[in-house]
From TrEMBL:
This is CID domain-containing protein. It comes from Sporothrix curviconia. Residues 203-224, 365-445 are annotated as: Disordered. InterPro entries: CID_dom, ENTH_VHS. Residues 372-398 have a biased composition (Basic and acidic residues). Residues 29-195 form the CID domain.
């Protein structure tokens, strides 16, 4: 298995294991504990000390063995972890220095089997399953993953000591009745077929490397021999975006867009991730302009100052004219695009992430608002003139209503007209009982 595929499978298996352990089955595990368990497995694979093996076993007995779903996720993760260890032998500058020597991939894969062996012993003889007479749920759930794990441990060429250790471990499992007899038979077959499969895999890798070297050399020769013309080749769309023979996790990211569900926590279905079918032929002009702009940005970042890259000329929309552009950085560190002929800033990125067209329109709107408030030449309604007109209207209405009334009402109406407040009829003043009594006595006399 290539290194990239093995790394992808390991990442997927770890994500699946994390998702299962976070569920309340029976109790959710903290994410920090899950990461610590993955780190401890890698550490035990590198150094198989009794303390490290016991730590992994206790964690699995507490969080994994009570659940069949968690056991299956751990088995899948162990297989992916074993395949992630490259079968090539580690390089060591000093052979006698064992303290700095890296653990080989063969030992790392074998150490994962030792962890499974300790857990099988505990669930068989220490968990009350009649000393192996009844099979534990952990054994039933882990059995489908033992065969690919044993096959990965035995997949080494010219490693007789490795095969002897695996067979000795399988003999112990047969003696203690950890697994069923038919499962043991498949495991022994996987051990016998391991070296042959490893040899075939190495042969395929050699052929693939030679074919890749030959194709790259022929491509470079063809590119050097191809005639250079001034006319650019047209942009053509392929029939498929992505290789149908490529695994789903190696497909381009654009193939995921059709499967992603907005605002959904449901994971994607890997079976639905397939290459996108496209209409072969010339690409649309908008797509060509976007690709040329992207190539121009790449050339600005990676090309030398005097080197002209593809896409350094922006095409004027709607016409066939090209505008020669130059990129620069202003005093604020903003990337700007300057027209070489006029020297005007025509584009670029602003400090706040806004487009320059948006900033220009907002400045123009603010300028129009300020001009509307401060420009005396503009025909705007005068507040004083409006108030005077409103007072004149009120005066006319009050005169019409005041005809036929007395002098006192006219005086009160005229006084109300002098104030901006509306006029009201003045009510007669009431006297208190103490003030009205002397007037009554005077009248009676």
């Amino acid at each position: 298995m290539p290194a990239t595929s093995a790394a992808a499978e390991l990442a997927i298996a770890k994500a699946s294991l994390t998702a299962v352990l976070l569920r309340p089955d029976p109790a959710p595990c903290p994410r920090a504990d899950i990461d610590e368990f993955a780190r401890q497995l890698t550490l035990t694979a590198a150094r198989c000390s009794p303390a490290n093996v016991q730590t992994c076993k206790r964690w699995m007995l507490q969080h994994v063995t009570p659940s069949s779903a968690r056991t299956a996720a751990v088995g899948r993760y162990l297989v992916a972890l074993a395949n992630s260890f490259s079968p090539t032998a580690p390089t060591s500058t000093k052979r006698a220095d064992k303290s700095t020597k890296e653990t080989s991939s063969r030992r790392k894969r074998l150490h994962l089997l030792y962890i499974i062996n300790d857990v099988l012993f505990h669930v068989t003889f220490r968990s009350g399953h009649d000393n192996g007479r009844t099979k534990s749920p952990f054994t039933t759930s882990i059995e489908p993953f033992l065969e690919p794990l044993v096959s990965s441990v035995a997949a080494f060429v010219r490693a007789p000591k490795q095969l002897a250790k695996i067979r000795s471990l399988l003999d112990l499992w047969a003696e203690k009745h950890y697994v069923a007899d038919n499962v043991l038979a498949r495991l022994r077959t996987a051990v016998d077929e391991g070296p042959r499969l490893a040899e075939e895999k190495l042969q395929k890798d050699r052929e693939g490397n030679e074919l890749q070297k030959t194709s790259s050399a022929s491509a470079s020769v063809a590119a050097a021999a191809a005639p250079r013309t001034g006319k650019e080749a047209p942009f053509l769309l392929p029939a498929l975006h992505g290789d149908p023979s490529t695994p789903w996790y190696d497909l381009p990211a654009a193939n995921w867009l059709a499967v992603l569900e907005p605002n959904s926590t449901r994971p994607m279905n890997p079976a639905a991730l397939k290459p996108l079918q496209m209409t072969p032929g010339p690409a649309p002009p908008a797509l060509v302009a976007s690709v040329q702009a992207l190539l121009a940005d790449v050339n600005r970042m990676f090309c030398d100052d005097g080197e002209a890259g593809a896409g350094d000329h922006a095409r004027n929309p709607g016409t066939s004219d090209t505008i020669q552009m130059d990129s620069d950085v202003d005093a604020l560190g903003e990337h700007i695009e300057i027209d070489v002929l006029s020297g005007d800033i025509t584009g670029g990125d602003t400090y706040y992430g806004w487009s320059r067209a948006f900033c220009k329109s907002m400045k123009e709107r603010q300028r129009r608002r300020q001009r509307g408030h401060n420009d005396p030449d503009l025909d705007l309604p005068d507040a004083d003139h409006d108030n005077r007109g409103r007072r004149q209207d009120n005066r006319g209405d009050n005169k019409g209503q005041g005809q036929g009334q007395g002098r006192r009402e006219d005086d009160s109406q005229s006084s109300s007209l002098s104030s901006p407040k509306p006029a009201f009829k003045k009510r007669p003043r009431r006297c208190s009982s103490t003030q009205a009594q002397p007037e009554l006595e005077q009248k009676s006399q």
